[in-house]
Amino acid sequence: MNPAFSVIVFTTLTGTGFGLWFWIALRIALGDRPQWFDGLGWMLGLLAAAALVAAGVIASLWHLGKPARVWRAFSQWRSSWMSREGVFAVASVAAAAALFAIQWLQGPAWATRATAALLAVLCVLAVFSTAMIYASLKPIPAWRHRLVVPAYLLFAALGGGLLFGPFAGTTLDAPNLVGAGIVAGAIALWLVKRRYWRDLDRDALPQTRGDAVGLPDRDVSVFERPHTEANYLTREMGFVVARKHAKRLRAISAVLFALVPALCALPVWLLPHGDATPLLWVGAVSFQVGALVERWLFFAEAKHLVTLYY
């Protein structure tokens, strides 16, 4: 598939934003309510996550032919994962705004906890819906892989977790748990992507030409190609990345989204009383760049069944 930069930016930025919202909301829902001074970091974190989500949504509009009609996508929530993604994203924004307002006005503790819990659930549903947009597409076997959804959720969790530490600040009861969680998340994400890439190399396109034309279990041959020149389908669906380049980009992305963040989080885990905020910022930036490379590969390495015909 031909990678669309707008979609790559959208899925990476919004994933990190929802991940940051999730961890902040979970901490507020399960922990003591932060006081005004301590809670200022949480509020800045809510705003930072909102900026990431907004930037991703704006980027997603670039690939739409008529962005003004995007509101129509919300009407298909019963059958479309894209529509559900939009519904959950808007609901998450509303919940985050409500949580910010309650904290600002020092509303009742039960309202703060309930709103935070709702925000955490909505963030998970929004990221899950984004992943299911691709995991539900039968013509692209690489996206139907069982690890696509877990990978999306892990990317969001790790990206948000790297930003969670700096914004949480001194309100954390056990900063070493945050460091250990980031290291564990980085290792888990690397293992998931490693297995995904291995399966992709083993059987990149398991279907046959018969499956592509609606005749499964039949030996279908092509007498004459449908086009003698390149067209939209061959450009968009038949995009090919060289194997040697793909392997190199996989290694680069893994170093950036897993190894560097894990190394940056080690001091937080092993030396919890030191100030490791600068390291976490470095890890967050490295992760974001690595996620962009990984997401580009996610599209570039996916093969559409139409290529068996064209």
Please, could you describe this protein's structure?
- By secondary structure, the protein is mainly α.
- The protein has a single domain (5-308), classed as Formate dehydrogenase/DMSO reductase fold.
- It has helices at residues 5-30, 36-60, 81-104, 109-135, 148-168, 175-202, 209-212, 232-236, 243-270, 277-300.
- α1 (5-30) packs antiparallel against α2 and α5 packs antiparallel against α6 (175-202).
- The longest helix is centred in the middle third of the chain and has 28 residues, at 175-202.
- The model has no long low-confidence stretch (mean pLDDT 83).
Just name the CATH architecture: Up-down Bundle
Strand fraction equals under 5%
Q: Specify the CATH class.
A: Mainly Alpha
Quaternary state of this entry equals: single chain
| Helix count from the secondary structure assignment | 10
Distance between the ends: 14 Å
Coarse structural class: mainly alpha
Overall geometric form: globular
Number of domains: 1
* CATH-derived topology: Formate dehydrogenase/DMSO reductase fold
Question: What is the H/E order?
Answer: HHHHHHHHHH
Characterize the main sheet: none
Topology, element by element:
Layout: H1 5-30, H2 36-60, H3 81-104, H4 109-135, H5 148-168, H6 175-202, H7 209-212, H8 232-236, H9 243-270, H10 277-300
Helix pairs in contact: 1-2, 1-4, 1-5, 1-10, 2-3, 2-5, 3-4, 4-5, 5-6, 5-10, 6-9, 9-10
Give the tags.
single chain, 310 residues, mainly alpha, Formate dehydrogenase/DMSO reductase fold, 10 helices, globular
